[in-house]
Design brief:
Structural class: alpha+beta
Strand order of the largest sheet: 5-2-1-10
Strand content: 25-35%
Keywords: Activator, Chromatin regulator, Coiled coil, Cytoplasm, DNA damage, DNA repair, Nucleus, Transcription, Transcription regulation
Protein name: Protein AF-9 homolog
Number of domains: 2
Order of helices and strands: EHEEEEEEEEHEHHH
GO cellular component, one term: cytoplasm
Shape: globular
Number of strands: 10
Pfam families: YEATS
Main location: nucleus
């Protein structure tokens, strides 16, 4: 076995990414000219590097991810022609039009040198700048109001972790260090971590991830994991009690 195909044990290396979508309202002229006149929005779903280029109106994408990602497959709603879209080179994104929100499956396939299995992510397409209309009810604003609010952004931060990578793949990763996230917040926060009911939650301009938000996101993930583990422990304890009760009932039936 060559040195390149030897795994570097005890080492983990990660690459920060974001995935999500941006959406804009079609103009009356665009809707009139569109083959499907019920379509109301143009949207783009994408997988990008987490850092944003300076003076850019694009969320993320400062780095080209093609050095370690071979393909990104976006599985759209089955009503779209060719719903599984394979993107084999950056930018890893799909632009479409539509009228409804739905869940998009995102499959990331790595370059052969990685020796890693593909990973699956899920993103709920967001089109509307939802605003509160009552205590417990939220409705999308009219199209003309939504158009004035501007593009809707919904992005999720994540980290792809490679544990015990092959030496050749490790060399590739270290040769392409990710652009550092800005230390301080310079733009609005992404939709999924904005305060509900705030302007940022409905629109808030072009968002950006920062290193401080990265730490907060990691903390949220850790808290979520702890919550899941806690629920698992409760279910396990409940199951144990039920098994004991079942065994007791069996003994009683046997003695009867």
């Amino acid at each position: 076995m060559t040195t390149e195909r030897v795994r570097v044990k005890g080492l983990s290396i990660y690459r920060p990414i974001i995935y999500g979508n941006t959406a804009v309202v079609l103009t009356p002229e665009e809707r009139e000219a569109h083959p499907s006149r019920e379509h109301t929005h143009r949207w783009t779903v994408a997988v990008r590097s987490a850092a944003s280029a300076e003076e850019s109106d694009i969320v993320g994408g400062a780095d080209d991810l093609g050095y370690f990602i071979r393909r990104v497959t976006f599985k759209l709603h089955e009503t779209y022609p060719n719903p599984s879209r394979n993107i084999d080179k950056p930018p890893f994104e799909v632009t479409e039009t539509g009228w409804g929100e739905f869940e998009i499956q995102i499959r990331i396939t790595f370059i052969p040198e990685a020796g890693e299995k593909p990973i699956l992510l899920y993103h709920h397409l967001k089109l509307h700048p939802w605003t509160a209309s009552g205590a417990d009810v939220e409705v999308p604003p009219p199209a003309d109001v939504a158009a004035q609010l501007g593009p809707v952004h919904s992005w999720q931060y994540d980290e792809i972790i490679f544990t015990d990578p092959f030496q050749q793949f490790l060399n590739t990763l270290t040769a392409h260090p990710p652009t550092p996230l800005p230390k301080a917040r310079r733009r609005p926060v992404p939709f999924h971590i904005a305060n509900p009911g705030s302007l940022e939650a409905s629109k808030g301009g072009v968002p950006e991830f920062s290193s401080a938000m990265e730490k907060e996101e990691i903390q949220r993930l850790e808290e979520a994991k702890k919550s899941v583990v806690g629920e698992q422990e409760k279910l396990r304890a409940s199951l144990t009690e039920k098994e004991k009760e079942l065994e007791r009932l069996r003994r009683e039936l046997g003695e009867a």
